[in-house]
Amino acid sequence: MHIVWLYVQKREMFCSFSPYGAFCKEKFANFALNNSIGRHMDKHFCLDDSPTFRMIELDEVGSTNNFLRHLDTPGDRRMTLVTAEFQTAGRGADTNRWESAKGENLLLSLRVMPVSLPASRMFALSEAAALAVRDSLTLTLSQEDGILPPAPSPLPLAPHKGGRGFRVKWPNDIYYGDSKVAGILIENDLQGPTIQRSTIGIGINVNQRRFLSDAPNPRSLADIVGHDVERRFVLERFMESFMHYMQQIDRGKEEALDALHEHYKKHLYRFGEECEYVDEKGEFRATIVDVETSGHLILKDTEGKRRRYAFKEVAPLQTSPRGGRLSR
Prior knowledge:
By secondary structure, this protein is of the alpha+beta class. The chain contains 5 helices and 17 strands.
């Protein structure tokens, strides 16, 4: 894959390479003003097919994840990206349907083939996807405030000022405050003790302002920044960040996976806060004290007991804007 970035800042060129292709960035000296994504940066981005990468852009599809899982890719490319303007049967991890108005949001799926990721560390892929979405949204929001990203890479990023930055809600939703901006659905295929491939479906609320489903707390990036956002640029930032994390994963070293895991925990929604939860036995109050490398959530309740949960075994209780309490 060939990814070309053009930055407006001091005539300075640099390139870096990954197993998935090459990143080339040219930085100049003048920042573009009054564009649709922010007032301080003008970027151009190009994704080309290569022996290791393929991008497919669809107008309408049932589900980008289902499309990818039934797609035969010549040459067994290590990464395939599919985007769609609209999904007729989009799926979310918590609900049966992912709501998205046509042409207003980012709907995409990635099929990746890690070099040699043990099945015991498959949660690293979920962490990489969630952090990459968070990074792309944080960078867009930072530019709206006139905060320029460090070069050459925007990683790692600090939370947005005021404490209402984008956070990762366990295991991989993206929240701004108490509102959900993005969701991720991951399906892994094993080959012996390692991950053969992973299909990562992502929905990001970019420009949709009105939500009609019974989801209790959706919000879009446009609603946060106050105007429509160029979806392509959010995708660019996500891809750069995701490949950064995939490089860490593909190093195959335990310390690299551990560093990714610690970075994930730093940006966890409600970490260390006492909140109300519900499991199969009923409601209780507890605090998130850890997430294991396997992805299990560790809560400590008000009696000091540690509780360990897999995905969907526990949910926080939240207040719906329409009234009443919901678990999500």
